Amino acid sequence: MAPSDRDRHQALAAGASGSSGTSCRCERGRRQKRVRAELVPAAGQAQFKVVIKSLSPKELVRIHVPKPLDRNDGTFLIRYRMYESVNEGLKIEVLYGDEHVAQSPYILKGPIYHEYCECPEEDPQAWQETLSCPTKEPQIAKDFASFPSINLQQMLNEVPKRFGEERGAIVHYTILNNHIYRRPLGKYTDFKMFSDEILLSLARKVLLPDLEFYINLGDWPLEHRKVNETPGPLPIISWCGSLDSRDIILPTYDITHSTLEAMRGVTNDLLSIQGNTGPSWINKTEKAFFRGRDSREERLQLVQLAKENPQLLDAGITGYFFFQEKEKELGKAKLIGFFDFFKYKYQVNVDGTVAAYRYPYLMLGDSLVLKQDSPYYEHFYMALQPWKHYVPIKRNLADLLEKVKWAKENDEEAKRIAKEGQLTARDLLQPHRIYCYYYRVLQNYAERQSSKPELRDGMELVPQPDDSTSICQCQGKRPSREEL
Question: Which pTM was predicted?
């Protein structure tokens, strides 16, 4: 299946969910400050407001502060987007009525740059400390264990022939002096817009190491050679991993785009879903729910199960591509907004062509996720445990009805697992964690290269977005880290 025909997973019409405390974010990946404030959500939200302004009255700056997202657990998520930079810093006032909450006002010392300001931190270690990047990422360590060294010449000789032919979906990147260069290999490389935008965004924030690598834009991981084979596996970078492949995994294009586009072009993202998780647990419909395309046969089985057990399951196929002959038998369900998924107490997560990229959104909701056993995984799965963060179901769905009945009969335990999964996903999928993960993969890759990266024939510069509408004056002073 061509990447341009991929199952969009309906996650692009999805949301996200949150963590406890009121988080104030300053231009995703630039700075992150966290404010904890216990509030009465139902009665007090009308009186709850956040005011963000420049520390200096001489600096007038455009800042968009949308309505706080009520997580319905006594906490709110505060987001804001800067359209100009400030030199002196920002004052964040968190007010309940006319009273400041907790340690409000909070002071973020400048300079603080807006998203498209190209002022990279010259000390990558300091940048990682500012973002509180984890010191260890188990999935990254596992992925690179197969590659103690990376032979660029072998990559150049083999990758175009093995993976870059007509139906290929590979992009060859070189990063030199914090500039991004690329050449597409194959017919299906439209999704390079996602890899381009995250690499450019990172380069605006921190100096990237010089490196040369290949990204797979297709659904399926590519490298299936084993470590003890000759020749050995190649370190292809992909968005999805599998138990029988050796690809190095990055956050999916969907998670990446959600992180970059929050509060701009995308309304249903990993942050906004946190304030749209449906009714309280006790008021949710006690059924397992699923909507999606026909990208895997188990999804058809799920719909058949729902027809036979409507008291336990509500499942429907919204679009037929792979099994068009089944539409007459199973019917076609109407599209439903992703926020409405969370009217149901249980969410069924079944693979699409590979891992279902809606999974992080489901985890961030306020429902119990019933996750199909799968050979595919995303970058954060290693941190999740069955029966702690989700309820596992067999790949052939043979025990799905049994697990739904268990959840109904053990409501408090089901609620506890749902909440534990939600809180863990909130932590793992924060915007700064996505930036940290990308940088750490690039850093590990660069450290293992056995020769210097170069610009190759056919490569072109990927330009930074034009920032002519806002002043961007880089300051020598580095922002200091503050724990609020």
Answer: 0.88
